[in-house]
Amino acid sequence: MSKAHIEGGERGASLAAQALPRFFGTASRRAALGFGVVLLALFLLTGNDLWLSIANYTLIYAIAALGLNVLSGYTGQISLGIAFFMSIGAYTAIWLGGQPVQTPAFIGGKVVVTSLYGLQLPIYVWLPAAGIVAAAAGALIGPTALRLKGFYLGIVSLALVFIGTYIFSDVSSLTLLTGGPQGRSFYTPCNLFTTCDPTTQGNLLFSNNPEVFGLALSRQQVFLVLNFLILAVAALFVGNVMRSRAGRAFQAVRDHEVGAAIMGVNLFQAKMGAFMLSSFLAGISGALLAVYTIHVSPADWSLLLSIQFVAAIIIGGVASIWGSILGAVFIFALPRVIDQLNILPVNGTSTIQSGDISAIIYGLLIVIFLLFEPGGIVGLIRRLQILAQRFNQIRRKGGEPTAISPNSEAESQFEVEQTPLSTGEGTQPLAE
Amino acid sequence: MAFFLQLCFDGIALGCIYALIALGFTIIFKASEVINFAQGEFLLVGAYVVAAGYYQWHLNFFVAILVGIIVTALIGILFERTVLRRMIGRPVFAIIMITIGLDTLLIEGVSVIWGTDQRPAAITSGLLDVPKVGDVVFPADHIWAIVVTLVICALLYLFFRFTKYGLAMRATAIDQEAALAMGINIRTVYALAWAIAGAIATIGGVFLAIYGGRSLNPILGSTALLAFPAIILGGLDSVSGAVIGGIIIGLAQGLTRGYEAPFQNIIGTGFDQIAPYILMLIILFIRPYGLFGKRKVERV
Q1: Hey, is the C-beta of B116 within 8 angstroms of any chain A C-beta?
Q2: Portion of chain B with pLDDT greater than 90, in percent
């Protein structure tokens, strides 16, 4: 069965090669993609629930990290408020897609059994809606927040998190949506594409191991595919935006605001665009997090969550797609993996807990990365690549001294750009 | 009326503690353009060291405070020397994040050394009195918090106005390059700013621990987040603004805490915890650089 999967993936890749030359154009890219699909399929089929859950959380968080990178990394606007926009997305999703749970709610000083809001709409309604409402919230706050610069913006976005947590946990008129301080469940009785059946208390389509392509998938496995696809689309989208006119404008604003304005960039438009795109991705991530964890409480969207995202993009790599993803892996997956593998020596009798050690390591790593490798993990990888290239050059020079030119690095990049033309693959659509 | 006066008095006392925290932020920011997110943890470390000095090493209350001041000042200098000096000229969020990293290290250090349980805060008998005038209670620690804040403000004023190093710090704040050209040792200025901020944090921490129920726990430092509205209100680069901002925030919080009960059905409990932030947003909406902050002139 896994074979069918792989073949499908490869056929898809070769079909897409004509339409998307940049992404699938070269043999090495196709190979890497095929390898990735095989790896994913293997993990999907062999991983146990625990590892799948670690992967799922990481994929969901990576979407929000990508969103933060759009705003902070590419556009240079500091935000500690990403958790707020995630919560907006989560509660929008809960309202539209949730099941009206019967819960004792604390209203007007009395305990009343009420049914919490939930319209039971399908995922293709609530998931985009979560992103759109979060982006709308960004559009509402943006004009005020984006007048501010530097530290002022950082502290205002921090205030958003506190105000959000308060509104969702304490404001009485919202307890029917949020369930108050203790939170509420997010069950969606709807299938991905079929109508609702309120009698089954399942969530998404995962209640009774549905079949996809003749393959019975568990809840974790379906989520892995879903989260992976959404992250892949988001990463491709952000990557393409950053190569477009709008993306160049974002980066110009980051590098020099006045300079960008002189070059004709509309500062307000660029900042608002980045702010809304970032909020949109955060909203999607929040909605996925809510449906995946099932239980959502206002305290989940704390300042700590925001700080973890800032740490993720710094450690992963600022203004880099892979940096966002690797940073999310580092911040959200690595602590749990270390916990699982029992790597850290913890003396049972001492006062030091394993949580303390991982927090100390986390603090130290942030400081060390910022001091010595501002490019993050991506910067580190790039540095290693250059080192490896130099090493290869030296070795080849020893063998055949005339074969290498001094700018071989630039030449190899040129080659990648030329391949679709020289092989004729890229010209085929034109001929038709 | 007595209720109102009581709320005002408590609010001003709390505001003075916020002002002490805010002063630390502002002094560092003026000298080196760094917002020190670890300031709250300076507070925490200071309060814990003073408590340890008082209860474990059986020092006199004031000697314990002196020890606490020295420790936090040294930590401040250490951070400046080893970490923040290398961060000059780096993006703002990198600076925010590195101080958050240091914050994590300090808070974990405290919970490793002293544990995470509630501990008694250092307090001396003079701070325990609760004199009454009419129906209004004036707890001694509140009065002392106000007095000490005023004294510290006066000392800082004298320091900045009349001493050589104070002048150097002011010159650096106005124009770093010009100060360098005039032979001012910028490194000393930075070290001094961090030491002063650390020292003031210990005093703020001692009062905050007494104000918040005479006990210590590792989340004490998160109260410092409420000093952010204070410094933003006053303007990041204004020392007097920090004090005024702190008192405004304290008053706003005290008054909302007193009068929020009738509106509980609409706004719920805990509105006083976010009232400072809402006040800050309103002020920033009108004046994006705070009440006393200066708009920077940008040169291209």
Answers
A1: no
A2: 35
Q: What is the pTM of this model?
A: 0.84
Nearest residue, CB atoms, B266 vs list A172, A351, A359: A172
Q: Which of A259, A310, A359 sits opposite B93 (nearest CB)?
A: A310
Question: Are the C-beta atoms of A88 and A329 separated by less than 8 Å?
Answer: no
Chain A residues inside the 8 Å CB shell of B112: 351-352, 356, 360
Tokens of A331: 């911040």
pLDDT at B83 over 80: yes
Partnered with residue A424 across adjacent β-strands are: none
Cβ contact (<8 Å) for A370 and B270? no
* Residue A204 near residue A222, CB atoms below 8 Å: yes
What residues in B contact A81, CB-CB < 8 Å?
none
Q: Which letter does DSSP use for residue A348 in this model? A: T
Q: What's the pLDDT score for residue B300?
A: 53
Q: Rounded to whole angstroms, how far apart are CA atoms B279 and B252?
A: 8
Within 8 A of B115 by CB-CB distance, chain A residues are 351
**In chain A, which residues have pLDDT < 70?**
1-25, 103-110, 112, 188-217, 342-355, 398-432
Which residues does chain A have within 8 Å of residue B285's beta carbon, measured at their own beta carbons? 144
Q: Do A155 and B265 touch (CB under 8 A)?
A: no
**Identity of the amino acid at B76:** G
Burial of residue B265 (CB within 10 Å: 0-12, 13-18, 19+) is exposed
Residue from B175, B198, B197, B200 nearest B186 by CA: B175
A84 vs B290, residue with greater confidence: A84
Whether B148 and B205 have beta carbons less than 8 Å apart is answered as no
ipTM: 0.88
Contact at 8 Å (CB) between B99 and B83? Answer: no
